Amino acid sequence: MAHITLEAGSAALFRPGTSDAEIEASALRAMRRRNTLVRFWQIAILVFVIGMWELSSHLQWIDPFFYSSPSGVLERLYEWATEGTTEGSLWYNLWVTMEEALIGFFAGSITGVFVGIGLGRNRFLSDIFSVYIKAINSIPRVVLAPIFIMIMGLGLPSKVALAFIMVFFVVFANAFQGVREADRNMIANARILGASDWQVTRTVVIPSAMSWIFASLHVSFGFAIIGAIVGEFVGARFGIGQLISIAKGTFDAAGMFAAILLVMVVTLVAEYIMTLIENRLAKWRPQQQLDTQ
Q1: How far apart are CA 207 and CA 197, in angstroms?
Q2: pLDDT > 70: what percent of the chain?
Q3: Of 92, 94, 163, 191, which is the most buried if we count CB atoms within 10 A?
Q4: Whole-angstrom distance, CA of residue 162 vs CA of residue 231
Q5: CB contact set of 188 (below 8 Å; sequence gap of 6+)
Q6: Distance between CA 210 and CA 272 in Å, rounded?
Q7: Cβ contact 76:250 at 8 Å
Q8: Highest mean pLDDT range out of 98-102, 144-148, 196-200?
Q9: How far is Cα 33 from Cα 26, in angstroms, rounded to an integer?
Q10: TM spans, by residue (predicted)?
């Protein structure tokens, strides 16, 4: 029977007897072409947006005082990196924010996974605590920043607490739902074979929920950064949020955009690292099929 495959969006008919290796090589070439095209358009859009921003600022189509320009943002970053900021070294302020976000991220993620799996596996406890979890989750987390600062002060604990709260509910909800979505037939088969509750949880439920958990981890580090920066914005001595607050108070648009750019780069690097870890820990998952339509 003739084999049919899609290359770069068009159907290509193989002659009878075409080997599987040739079909796979053709699919890989199509995938590389598609990835190259995606990267081209990503870079092209970025260059276009930055170029239009710079041109608009230079030609006074927009007010540089309020919108700055890419060159102005880079100049501010260079100034901060070489001369420091009004609140000390740029790298120290960045480290303060990263420390707060990382502690809150790991604490919130680990707690969210354990609580989500525990309540997901115990319907009685989940029924008891569900009303309290829903009540706390209904509170906009950012409004807790003044409360944490009032209770814990301007230092590290208040920012970590806010980052923890931002991360915990995202991870908990996905872990809980992932456990509830576990294949009931596989659980039943494991029990028939004599598996204990812990063995079922470890070998069936947790692997089934890993996709849900990693999906939450991809976005939760961004929430940890948001929690740390919002806490610093409300009240802090150091950190990127404090730099944004100072830039806002002095109408330094370049400084605000420079701080936002730093946060964006850090978050993208964390997302890349998280993807590498996920790919390493989830090798058991089947590879996604190439979609060139």
Answers
A1: 15
A2: 89
A3: 163
A4: 7
A5: none
A6: 18
A7: no
A8: 98-102
A9: 11
A10: 37-55, 101-119, 131-154, 160-179, 212-234, 254-277
Contact by Cβ (8 Å): 154, 236: yes
**For residue 195, what is the DSSP state?**
-
Tokens of 246: 């100072």
- Domain 71-282 architecture: Orthogonal Bundle (1.10)
* Domain boundaries of the chain, sorted by first residue: 20-62, 71-282
> Where would I find the H helices in 59-89?
64-67, 70-83
Angle, CA 236 vertex, CA 217 and CA 153 arms, to 5°: 90
What secondary structure letter does DSSP report for 155?
Answer: S
Which CA distances in Å does 186 have to 175, 183, 191, 257? Answer: 18, 5, 9, 51
Report the alpha-carbon distance of residue 75 to residue 153 in Å, rounded: 34
List the one residue out of 187, 159, 12, 181 whose CA is nearest residue 96.
159
Residue 34: HSE in the Cβ half-sphere, 13 Å Cα cutoff: 15
What is the helix (H) or strand (E) element at residue 12, kind and residue range?
A: strand 10-13
A 10 A CB-CB count for 291 gives 8
More confident residue, 148 or 193: 148
Neighbours of 200 (CB within 10 A): 20
Backbone angles phi, psi at 12, to 5 degrees: -125, 125
* Burial of residue 80 (number of CB atoms within 10 Å: 0-12, 13-18, 19+): buried
Residue type at position 81: A
Three-state DSSP at 56 gives helix
- The model's confidence at residue 197, banded by pLDDT at 50, 70 and 90, is confident
Identify the bridge partners of residue 202 per DSSP, sorted by sequence position.
none
pLDDT of 293 reads 44
pLDDT at 38: 92
- Token pair 């060159």: residue: 71
